[in-house]
Amino acid sequence: MPDTLQFLEMPNAPADKADILILPIPLERTVSFKPGTADAPRAILDTSVQLEFYEEDAGWSPFKHMLLSVLPEFADDSALTDTKLHKTLSELVARLPSDNLFIGLGGEHSVTPSLVQARMPEPGTVVFLDAHADMRSSYEGSRFNHACPVNRLLDQGHKIIMGGIRSLFESEVDRIEKESRINLFLDWDLRGKEQWEAFLQMVNSLDGPIYLSIDMDVFNPGIVPGVGTPQPGGFLWYQMIELLESLFSRKTIDLRGVDIVELVPEPSRVSEMTAAKLLLKIISFWGYANGFNQEPQAGSQTLMEYE
Ligand SMILES: [Mn+2]
Predict the structure, then answer these.
(1) How far is the CA of 300 from the centre of ligand 1 (A)?
(2) 306: pLDDT confidence band, cut at 50, 70 and 90?
(3) Distance from the CA of 303 to the center of ligand 1, in angstroms?
(4) DSSP letter string over 247-294?
(5) Which residues keep their CB under 5 angstroms from ion ligand 1?
(6) Can you identify the CATH homologous superfamily of domain 20-303?
(7) Which of 56, 58, 106, 168 would be 133's cystine partner, CB 3.0–4.6 Å?
(8) Which residue has the higher pLDDT, 1 or 194?
(9) 210 pLDDT exceeds 50?
(10) In angstroms, rounded to a whole number, what is the distance separating the alpha carbons of residues 161 and 199?
């Protein structure tokens, strides 16, 4: 495998010139069921070669107009404690240029609070799409466990909109009911048209800074079997597209960052293809909402040799 990671085989722009920054974070320390998420960032980027440059929903070729950079991966260092590792990650991300769309490619869900801390230091809203409530205060001895990110996000002062949840334990339910900063949309409830519309409306009307965290297990395991802790039920592809369209239909969105986590590459490669295409959709919708389609054609795609 090449040491330089790329998206759609495009040359990487310098980080300070890039409109899109992708940070691969192959972190896997606390996975409790199916291992393999450390291989996810490379698998997603490798699979991106199969995508088209044209994005059919917004109807444009985002990389004709935008520069993208895949940063060197943030490698785990077994000499570091969980606390030190997450602090190092957060500090690295805080030093990156902020005038861009930042996307963290996990790796396990424990990375989210460290990324949010760097990109959204003031109180904001985290849209948290996941099959699991991830609200344990610590799990298997670590508060940085992949089962714990929501508590750390609350500690940081954020509001949380949870969608797609379909696995939680009793004390998590009690905690959510008492916590006014969490809006919970259970997966089953989102099957109802009214609740789904209410969910989209809430996502569409958010004020202030927003961070989007997508655990790939929010999807139905029939379409994304490659996840660490699969659960029946879940989002289908076009539900996710509708949600993203709602989020990005507000031109003034202050999106501080996105992460895609908990993927486990699998033999059919359908799961990593779904993650790669999700990445393309998010980039396209964000770019279009921010008017990059009006910008001159000097994006990463135009720098490719066959252009
Ligand atoms: Mn999950």
Answers:
(1) 33
(2) low
(3) 38
(4) HHTSTT-EEEEEEEE-B---TT-HHHHHHHHHHHHHHHHHHHHTTGGG
(5) 130-132, 215, 217
(6) Ureohydrolase domain (3.40.800.10)
(7) 168
(8) 194
(9) yes
(10) 9
Number of Cα atoms under 13 Å in the Cβ half of residue 187: 21
- Ligand 1 centroid from CA 231, angstroms: 9
* Confidence at residue 32, expressed as pLDDT on a 0 to 100 scale: 75
| Domain extents in the chain | 20-303
Q: If you count them, how many residues does the chain have?
A: 307
Work out the burial of residue 238: count CB atoms within 10 Å of its CB; fewer than 13 is exposed, 13-18 middle, 19 or more buried.
Answer: exposed
> What pLDDT, in 10s, does the model give residues 95-139?
999 999 999 999 999 999 999 999 999 999 999 999 999 888 778
- Ligand 1 centroid–CA 33 distance in Å is 11
In this prediction the pTM is 0.96
Ligand 1 centre from 225 Cα, in Å? 13
Q: What is the mean pLDDT of residues 19-30?
A: 95
- pLDDT bracket for residue 43 (50, 70, 90): very high
Between the CA of 164 and the centroid of ligand 1 the distance, in Å, is: 10
